[in-house]
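User: Can you write out an input/output pair for a complex, sequences first and structure second?

Assistant: Here is one pair. Inputs:
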Amino acid sequence: MTLPLLPITLVDVFGSSLMILFALLCVGLAVRLRRQDRDNLVWTYLLWFSYALAGFAISRAVGHITEHVSLVLDQGHTWKILKPYSGAINTISFVVVASITLFFERIWKIYQQIARDKLALEDTHRQLRYLNRHLEDLVAARTRELTHSESKYRRIFELSRDPILVADETGVLIDFNPSAMRLLAIDSESGPDRALSLPDLLQHPGDWDKLRGELLATGFINDEELELAGRARQSLNVLLSATRENTAENRTVRFHFLLKDISQRKAMTRQLLQADKLASIGQLAAGIAHEINNPLSIILGYTQLLIRSEDAATERYGDLRTIEKHARACKTIVEDLLKFSRSTQTRKEAGSLHQAVEEVVNVVRHHFELDNVMITCELDPAVPPMVIDKEKIEQVFMNLVMNAKQAIGKNGAIQVTSRFDPERKLVTVQVKDTGGGIEARHLPRIFDPFFTTKKTGEGTGLGLSVSYGIVQHHNGEILVASEPGTGSTFSVVLPVQQSELVVPQADLAVPQPESRKVGS
Amino acid sequence: MVRWLIRWLPTVWLLVSAQPAAAAQVHAAPEGLYAHQIGHLIFIVAMGILIYWLRHRRLTHHQGWRRLQYAALFFILWNADAGLAHFLESRPGLFTSLDLGTWQARLTAAPGREVPVAIYYLVKMDHLLCVPAIVFLYLALRELLRDGQSAAGEERPR
C-alpha cells in the first residue's frame, strides 16, 4: 500500500501557519485582557498560559515548516542537525504549558480570596467614609433614640399606679417611683440618693431573708403577700412580685420589685367577715331573746301580782322586790339584744339630728365636768332634717359619749362634731375622745354582744352592739379609728332620706352580711 | 581576603582534584522520544485537571470558560494523536518514505502492516486537532475580554 504524503505535508504546513497565527492572536487577546484589569490575577494567569502555549505552538510550527522546507531544498542533513533541538524545545514547551495549567485551581482560589478581601475592604472603606461624613448626625440620631426610649420607660416607671422599687443585693433602694413614695411615706427630699433599705420597710424583718433567698435561688417571686410599714409605721398589706437582674458591667445583682397595695381589699374582707359574724350573732341573739322574753314577762307579771297582795313590811315583800328588780334587769338585756338584732319596733320620723346630739350632751355635760372632762360640740349647720328614730339615735350617742368618758376617766376632752356631705348625701357625726384608745387586738370584737374590757359588773358589753344595730337600722354605718394612747374616734354615718317621714314597723331582720361596718 | 580564601579554598581544591567517576549517566537515543511522550502524557493530565476544575467551579456556565474547556479537550485529543503518531513512527520496518521533498513524496507500507500505516497516515495530520484547540482558546479569550471582569467575577464573593 502506497499513500501520498502531499496531504500530510499540506495539512502540516497550513496547520503550522494557523497555529503561529492563532498563538500570536491569543497572546494579543491575553495582553488586552490583562490591561483591562491589571490587578486581576486570573487574567495574569491566562496571559502566562497564552505565552507558554504560543511558545509551544510557534516552536512546533517553526520546526515542522523548517522540516518541509529543508526537504524541499534538499537540505535533509541540516534538518537532521536541527531536529533534536526542535524536538527538545517542543517537549520543554508543552511541559511548561502543562505545568502552568496545573496552577489554575490555586490561582483561582487566590483570586477569590483577593476578591473577597477587596470587597470587604471596599465595604469597610465605604462604611468608614459614611461614618466619617455622618458621624455627628448618627450620634445625634442615636442620642435622640436613646432619649426617647429612656423617656418612654421613665414615663411608665413614673406614672405607674403600682409602686416599683429597685434595690441592690443588700436591699438598699436604688430607685423608686412616686407611687412607692406615696405608699411608703418616703418624702421627696429623701430621694434615691439617701440610703433607704427595703428590710427596714418590712413589718417583719425576717421576711427579707426569705425574699432574698428565693430571688437568688429562682430569680423571681410571684404575688407574695407581705406586710409593709407605711405612713407612721401603719401596716400595709401588699402583693409583691420581684425579679433578679444580673448586671453585666460590674457583675452585681439588682432586684426589681413591683408592689400592689391590697390593704383596702384586706380591710374590706375583714369588714365583710365582721358583718357576717355580727349577722350570725344577731340571728342567734334574736332567737334566744324571743324565747327568754315570754317566760321572763310571766315571771315579772306574777312577781308584781304577788307584791300587790303582800304587806310591804314583810321579809317576803323584800324578796319579791329583788326578784322583780333582777327580772327587769334581764328584760333590759333582752331588749338590748333585740335592739342589736334589729328585732325591736322602730318609729322613724322627721327630726333634727343635732337636737338629739345636743340633748345627750346637755344631759351628761355637768356630770362630766365634775371629773374635769370637757365636752364640746361643733355641729355643721348644713346638716338637714332627717328621718330618724330620735330616741334610739340618742341612745347611740349616749352610748358613745359614755364610752368616751369611761375611756378618759378623769381630765380629758370629748369632741362631738358633725358634717354634711351634700354630694353623697351623708351626715357624719364623730365622737372623739382623748382616752386610752383601743388595743388593735380588741378592735375586731368591740361590736360583739357582751364583749367588754370593763370589770365585771361595770358593763354588760351591749352598748356598742346596740348602737351598731340601731345605726344599721337607719341604713348607716358606725366606724372606729383608734390608736392606743391617743384616743378613739367613733363616726356615725347616716344617709339623708327626705322622702319618707314615718317608717313602718321594722321587720325582724338581722344585720345583713353586705352591710358595711368598719371595725378598725 | 584571607577569610574569603579560607572559605572557598577547600571547595576549589575539591573541584580541581576530582577524579573521573561513574556518577554521570549516559543518555541513549530513545530517551528523547520517551521524554517527549511523557511530556504528551503530562499535557493530557494537565488539560484533564483543567477541565475538572472548570466544571467543578461551575465556570463552564459562562461561554468564555466553556470554550476554554473545549480547547483543553482538543489539546487532549491532539496529545493522544501525536503520541500515537510518535509511537508508530518509531516502529522499525513499518513503512518506507520515498521521494521526500517532492510533490511525489509517498510512503509504502511494509507487507502486512497496512492497517498501522493507514492509522499512522491519519494521525499524522494532527493539525486537524491542534488547530481547533488553539482556535477555541482564541475564542475563549475573546469572550472573556468581551465580558471583562464579569466573566472572571462569576464566582466573585458578594
